[in-house]
Specification:
- The termini are far apart.
- The chain has helices at 2-26, 47-53, 57-61, 67-70; strands at 34-36, 42-45.
- 55% of the residues lie in helices and 9% in strands.
- The mean pLDDT is 93.
- A two-stranded antiparallel sheet has the order 1-2.
Length: 74
């Protein structure tokens, strides 16, 4: 049990480290990032993405931006 507990604690620590690195990237002004759903909804967009598409955080929070509407079709 002690060995398994130690393994799980190590895995959790690795996940926290990875999450922190991803958060730094997602919050960085280097690249626009969004996370959305298959219906066009956006549930996360960083400030750089909003700047690129010329929209505001308020528009994002009120679901006024749909990624499928601002993405060119093929």
């Amino acid at each position: 049990i002690r060995q398994r507990t130690a393994e799980l604690e190590a895995a959790n620590a690795a996940l926290r480290t990875t999450e922190a690195r991803l958060r730094l990237l997602a919050d960085s002004p280097l690249i626009g990032i969004l996370f959305g759903d298959v219906y066009g909804g956006i549930y996360y967009a960083n400030d750089e993405f909003l700047r690129i598409v010329g929209r505001t955080r308020q528009e994002l929070q009120t679901n006024a931006i749909k990624w499928d509407k601002i993405t060119p079709s093929r």
